[in-house]
Specification:
The complex is a heterodimer of chains A (about 160) and B (about 475). With about 160 residues, chain A is mainly beta. Chain A has two helices and eleven strands. The chains are: A mainly beta (about 160), B alpha+beta (about 475).
């Protein structure tokens, strides 16, 4: 669908009279991305109306719908030697903290118990706590908050603190 | 108001309900623009739509749950109206308000009506004012001491409910006084985190309860009708799995009283659009009490459509345009019995853990009495971001027994591979003598069916614990 110039102007007008901080919508080859002023952009309003060819975004070129992996999983070589690697028990979205705005469950350098929750994986609205699985120090963090992962994706590496009991 | 023909509607939802709304738009000769996240670009609704508009990343919080994205998408694609479906923003007054502020028609009631329905404490008050029983319980309780006083008065077990919850979310059962302090604190904290509102209220937990609801339709000219009742007592963790219309166990006098109660609440709200008033029917006491009002289309609306022959979604679109209801109360009749079961992409054996994946086989059952509402197709990759509902199987029969028999057969014929589903659990529940005899209650599935189905696995402790993130 090609949106008319009038429609684009109406979106900009709606943005200007609202308290919205950002919108980013695309119909056909028209993308309207508007953001309220940030410190780095002096004007209060930064209208970006760009033609986004399908080939550039990949969205309309028949790209597979569905799971989008946020990051390429780390390769096995990159894990610290002897470390216990915590993997995702299912595909889903990783939440590093118990609720939005709260500090993360763990960060690099933390010493954890095997039973400690290191993150939450959300799949189809079910929240599952992922446990460390080994006691020791967190030496590798392979996921950011809010990214999507596949089942088995490495999440953290933990250097065991002693012989298994 | 004068009727304005809707030319183009934005479908602000996904999954099977987006498909359902596109279908209704086609029937009403309205163009349907489907709002899609990055994960839904290839969805069935997107394929069927007149066109799509991209509203953001896969996570619903960055797309389907953003009012400004929906409104901007509707303006950019020159839609006249926005249909919110169910879930997502459908019961958020902010979307209805924003549509009104930007000259868009919201397919649903006014923002004020949604606000009054969404606040469950306010809704209880509204029901009482309309002369509808609300059952033993409280308005919002200020703290654990007040909660304890109410709980002692109504008697344990009780349900602690979040004022901002609803739809089975934000509910905790408390067995006795010893559990109250800890559960109240946890539930209030979770409600604050999930809904931004920690207020809690109390209801007596009814052991032998049926969940019965009445479908309402009101137009913008002041007409309001009901389309009979539905029984949704087959639930797991307060989530419905099987729904029926009509509610066969209701004595006729109680059926009339429920319909009158629903209409009284609807009239008091000046209700516009499709809505549902939910009741708890206490079979032991022969009483009913108001549970909540859902100011939107329900997942289970098709069972009502099957027995009344009325199309609720088309009627929603007509109401939104300002047109009068296409029928009056005396033209509503109930014919036959319909059963809906929800096929969820979940592994029952693994404690209902979600099972996203690719549909490597997809052969829904066919037949004169069968309707399948689904967004599934061969090769569809079910994304992990949204709820697990993959299909609703709706079957009608002349009698309840016939509808159940046909549903069991249709489930057996429903060939799905590539994901785990609740299909076999549904068949087991429908085939059970208790279900056929209609002697179940809202706890029946969990206390009777699930333990018998897989005694070892169901009791097994799961690594996954539920956390409500809204």
């Amino acid at each position: 669908m090609s949106s008319s110039l009038e429609a684009i102007k109406r979106v900009i007008a709606a943005f200007e009279r609202s308290d919205w901080t950002e919108i980013d919508v695309r119909a056909g080859d028209v993308r309207v991305h508007l953001a309220a002023g940030e410190p780095t952009t002096p004007p209060a309003l930064r209208p970006i109306v760009t033609a986004a060819p399908a080939a550039e975004t990949g969205i309309e070129t028949g790209a597979e719908p569905g799971i989008e992996t946020g990051e390429a999983p780390a390769t096995t070589d990159s894990f610290p030697a002897g470390a216990h690697v915590v993997v995702s028990p299912s595909p889903g979205i990783i939440w590093r903290s118990p609720e939005p705005g709260a500090p993360p469950f763990v960060t690099a350098g933390d010493v954890v118990d095997a039973s400690l929750t290191v993150c939450i994986v959300e799949v189809m609205k079910l929240m599952s706590h992922v446990k460390a699985g080994a006691a020791g120090e967190v030496v590798g963090v392979y996921v950011d908050n809010g990214v999507s992962v596949e089942k088995g994706a490495p999440l953290f590496a933990i250097a065991p603190s002693g012989p298994p009991s | 108001m004068t009727a304005t023909r809707l030319g183009r509607v934005l479908v602000a939802n996904r999954g099977e309900i987006a498909v359902r709304i596109v279908r209704a738009c086609r029937d009403e000769d309205i163009e349907a623009i489907v709002a899609v996240s990055e994960a839904d670009v290839g969805s069935l609704a997107a394929q069927m739509a007149t066109d799509v508009v991209h509203i953001g990343p896969a996570g619903a919080g960055q797309s389907y749950l953003r009012v400004e994205q929906i409104v901007a998408a509707a303006i950019l694609t020159e839609c006249d109206a926005v249909h919110p479906g169910y879930g997502f923003l459908s019961e958020r007054p902010e979307l209805a308000d924003a549509c009104a502020a930007h000259g868009l028609i919201f397919v649903g009631p006014t923002g004020d009506t949604i606000r009054r329905g969404a606040d469950k404490v306010e809704a209880r008050r509204l029901a009482r004012d309309a002369g509808v029983p609300t059952g033993a319980g409280s308005d919002s309780v200020s703290g654990v001491d007040a909660a304890a006083a109410v709980a002692d008065y109504v008697g344990y077990p009780i349900l602690l409910k979040a004022a901002a919850g609803g739809g089975g979310r934000g509910m905790v059962r408390v067995e006795g006084a010893g559990q109250l302090a800890a559960r109240f604190a946890a539930a209030s904290r979770e409600a604050e985190a999930a809904f931004g509102d920690g207020r809690m209220y109390i209801e007596r937990f009814v052991e032998n309860a049926r969940h019965v609801e009445v479908q309402l339709l009101g137009d913008r000219l002041g007409n309001i009708v009901h389309l009979g009742d539905r029984d949704c007592s087959t639930q797991r963790r307060f989530q419905k799995l099987i729904e029926e219309a009509p509610a066969a166990s209701l004595p006729d006098d109680l059926r009339l009283r429920l319909a009158d109660a629903a209409l009284a609440i609807g009239r008091r709200l000046g209700y516009q659009g499709a809505g549902t008033v939910e009741f708890l029917v206490d079979l032991d006491r022969g009483e009913f009490s108001f549970l909540e009002i859902n100011t939107r289309l329900q997942v289970e609306h098709p069972v009502t459509e099957m027995v009344t022959g009325r199309d609720i979604v088309r009627e929603q679109l007509r109401i939104a345009s300002g047109a009068p209801l296409s029928f009056g109360q005396d033209e509503v009749s109930i014919n036959g019995h319909a059963v809906e079961c929800r096929l969820n992409a979940e592994s029952v054996a693994d404690g209902f853990v979600p099972s996203p994946g690719t549909l490597t086989r997809w052969d829904p059952p066919r037949g004169d009495h069968i309707r399948v509402d689904s967004h599934g197709f061969l090769g569809y990759q079910i994304p992990p971001y949204y709820d697990s509902l993959i299909a609703k199987l709706i079957v009608i029969g002349a009698t309840r027994g016939e509808a159940i028999d046909r549903t069991v057969q249709a489930l057996a014929d429903f060939a799905i591979e590539g994901i785990d589903t609740t299909r076999e659990l549904l068949a087991a529940a429908l085939s059970h003598d208790d279900f056929r005899n209609d002697t179940i209650n809202t706890r029946w599935l969990e206390t009777t069916v699930l333990p018998a189905l897989s005694p070892d696995r169901i009791t097994q402790h799961r690594i996954a614990e539920g956390v409500n993130r809204g």
